[in-house]
């Protein structure tokens, strides 16, 4: 293959894919401008590593030796992918409820950081060993078979963990349309796994280094785009709610859907401890006063459905209509 043509393909792929991933991330940051959290900071970090990778590819031609360039490329690739995965995990932590889930996800975040460090150390270990074996003939640090296997194993573990970690959100959210939306959003975590499998397959073949680099570029951009997808997708659904929501004139279990106001019919819990315990036993996470997220219409729906039977059991039948304005989404 013509080296100039290969270089052009790599530069073109890097520019297009990186521009798309950066646009997704900037849109995410614009949406969450006044409410940055750890997941947004991790997304910014991943974007910085991706930009560094693109700059090195476009500017370093003839200025940096190939061995050093391969070092920088692989290190920034790992940093982009794993910081994006940590951003997704932090999003799940932000949306999750309860101390046990927080502790579990914090442990998973530590494992992700450890895997990132192990992959980076393996890179330096393999490349330095290769340099000492043939200090004259070596031109670049190519990924080895062991690096490819560890990269694929760690990637599949991380993506499957992210997918199953998001399932705890489905246990709380009652609205079927929102549940389908969450399934769509978090199942895209597997897109990074598919890109990783393609990348590893080119590494194991070891013939076409151009396609190997292109696959790595695509995987990094897919990882960063998937990290921003929950926030960006929510805006799309808010602009066109008919995609996943019922008709605005329909009713469902005590909630009248209107254009800008949701009407929730319920009787407030009295101060008696027995009734309050019954209510909180039904919806413990939704009724937490210090929950780290705003209540959406589906959350209010779940509260109303859960506490109405309990209140009727205690003879509290006088309903109270509360008009709740559309709350901002936690995404």
From TrEMBL:
Keywords: Membrane, Transmembrane, Transmembrane helix. Signal peptide: none annotated. InterPro entries: SAT4-like. The chain crosses the membrane at residues 12-30, 42-59, 71-95, 107-125, 149-172, 184-204, 210-237. It comes from the Eukaryota. This is G-protein coupled receptors family 3 profile domain-containing protein.
